[in-house]
């Protein structure tokens, strides 16, 4: 997908106010993003016109049930790009979503700053790392976690703390570009471990193609 | 005993470090030794004089009178231990032995032999207790005693070789006495040790309870006073602040009234620069000559400050001048502050008592704080007020200490533990005494008695009865010993049978002796039976034992009178002396045991309880001082200057910066209050407390946590949270607070997007909160535009492992 092609999105969220907010943010985007379907059930993503959308925005907490990890897994297995957009602000949920193959994990408090960029990145198979997710990865103690360098961990944690790449760059004495490359590299490392998924593979492939990571790094 | 004092102890070495039981045991034994020896010397000496021929009386008296005098001095020395050097006491004791020994050649005859032997024998035993802490001196005196006996023998019957048996007996007695002492002392030490161990654990509990109580009280006071006031200042503007200055002053007074406040220190120079000069017609221009900083404890510092303030208003009211001079300078570890004016002056004597200005606010307040204040004035010559405080001044400090001690919670239930301690000490002393007497019984029976029995087999009628009695006594000792060594009481039934056996043995031996042999060399049983009985009866009152000894002596007397050959007067005297030296001595030991159990043990328990209480108080006082020092260092660096400024109009609540400072201090206090909450994650709890204060002030705060929470010591939490409190206090609209737990570290961060006063180092890694820190917390601060980001990190002591989830 070229870097300026329009992006189509299906939003699965049962809260009308959230839907309205998302549509407003997308409308302000430089690159056109169209919400082709929206609703409170995952069915929207499986039936036309939602079934052909480039990106699925999925609220994990639908109705009264627990987190919709099963829906996420099925969407990922159908090679859909899913941005998980959740009220839940805990690292275990974030780590589970990444492992299942979600493109990224956003908390709703981060939506205004990060949803548009996350959607575009998902459409392009590019990595995207919002602060809440960075905090989860920086404190991950699971046995199957990828090996991170000390600097990578610092960047993750400080990005989580400050929510400002400029401040992180200033504190560490590096450029914002470098901060981004650290974050991307961590995201790719995570895509390269755990459960196999087509979306993860394409994320890694694109990253190698773009020169974000070396094959040797992985 | 009470008169001598516990430390008074002439012959013994200073017993530093000995427990109360051991100390009192040694004192009791020392008294016992001196009294026993003096009593025996006087009694036997008198008896000897009575028996002596008229011609022998002058030389006998010339020996007896100095010996009695020496005993008298020794008794006097018991009460006034410090008046006599140890060498003199030793010489006196040696003189008594030598003079006693010389009795033998002077008086002559068998009676004198027995008597002198008895006297010296008792002296040798008594010396072991009198000089219990100096065994070398005790054995030296014992050796001297035996030498004197030998010399007496040689002098009274020249050509006759000295009898070895009494000498050996004397050494056995001395050795037994020493062994008995060591056994009882070992038990006393055991009692002391276990009492000390119990006391230590009780003390820890009492100290901890007292500290908790004071901490609660402190927090409550802080909450009601400074915290409430500062919070109100930080939250409002544009309202009526007329209530604030008196309220701030009241808060300061309340905080300075807290026990231990004097342990924090303030800069008196800074305080004095805040002295209000008054306004309008009441204004007094102060010319200050102060070279700061002058650090003083905050108690005296505030007392001086409040006194100066009062004195300045007095100048305005009464002196008739508009100028005054204020000086302060350090002096000999303290400080002198002087306020003088050239006004109209007054006569201090003529000030009515109801005027509290000078007597209360200036002089009284300073006295309470452990310093002094003087007003010097004469009509027409101006007035000079001087405040003095000296850190090294012992007297006010002691007074201070007493006052503080009076305020702290007392160690609870000291009395309840007293009887338990007494029971413990009594049990140990009884056990030691029983073991010692058992040892004496067995050694005596199998050395002295056995030899006599063997040597005189041919004189007994019949001999097998005496042997059977010997075996019977040995069986009693072994049975009792078996119970004792297993740490058990002798059952009443066994005790009854044993006592019966002992009395029966006494009777058998008395009635199977040939006439005229009673208490003589052939009578092996007379001297030993009493020890067996004492070992059986040690835990009962001495009256019971006296009754037994009476029965024992009665049996022997009956046997003597029934033998058909009534003894002559001289024989009676010899028998009497033997009886005194045997049964009298045994009775004295019985009395001593009773004294130990019913006099020494309670006294030792009381002494131990007193020492424990004192030590507990000291510890509580010490710990509280330290706690307060810790707490107030924070207060005196931050809160106290704020309250002083607000209380005296130097700082205005209309000033935004002042309100922010109040906000920061209020936030810090909220964190302090949250410190004691029983919650799973205290760090987060304290952060929430700070966040709540900020939210009350209209700041939007997002709080996010990542990672698995772990243990963080309270002093580290203070260091970690404090930068957050400062940042939040300066935030106008939005802030983000995060906690990140990694296996190696915990990082607490706060970022404010619109921080007031960015350029004054808000949240910089400076110990503005003033606590001594070795917490190893690293604080990093980054600013960009209006944003300030502070990240406080602490390396956790060990990795908490890998989460296998």
Based on the model shown, name its key terms.
heterodimer, A: 218 residues, alpha/beta, Rossmann fold, five-stranded parallel sheet, 49% helix, globular, B: 805 residues, alpha+beta, Ferritin, Heat Shock Protein 90, five-stranded mixed sheet, 63% helix, 10% strand, elongated, disordered N terminus
Protein described:
The complex is a heterodimer of chains A (218) and B (805). In chain A, 49% of the residues lie in helices and 12% in strands. With 218 residues, chain A is of the alpha/beta class. Chain A has a single domain (7-217), classed as Rossmann fold (3-Layer(aba) Sandwich). In chain A, helix 6 (131-138) packs across helix 7 (150-162), helix 8 (165-172) crosses helix 9 (176-191) and helix 9 (176-191) packs antiparallel against helix 10. Among the domains of chain B are: 1-162, Up-down Bundle (Ferritin); 260-397, Histidine kinase-like ATPase, C-terminal domain (Heat Shock Protein 90), CATH 3.30.565.10; 681-795, Heat Shock Protein 90 (2-Layer Sandwich). Chain B is built from 21 helices and 12 strands. Chain B has helices at 20-51, 57-79, 86-107, 109-130, 135-156, 164-235, 244-256, 268-272, 298-319, 356-368, 394-407, 414-455, 463-485, 492-511, 526-537, 542-562, 569-637, 639-647, 656-674, 682-696, 714-730, and strands at 265-267, 285-290, 295-297, 323-331, 334-341, 372-377, 383-390, 700-706, 734-741, 745-752, 777-784, 787-795. In chain B, the strands form 3 sheets. In chain B, strands 2-4-5-7-6 form a 5-stranded mixed β-sheet. A 5-stranded mixed β-sheet of chain B has the order 8-9-10-12-11, with helices on one face. In chain B, helix 7 crosses helix 18 and helix 12 runs antiparallel to helix 17. The model of chain B is unreliable at 1-14, 393-412, 762-772 and 800-805 (pLDDT under 50). Chains A and B meet through helix 6, helix 7 and helix 8 of A and strand 8, strand 9, strand 10, strand 11 and strand 12 of B.
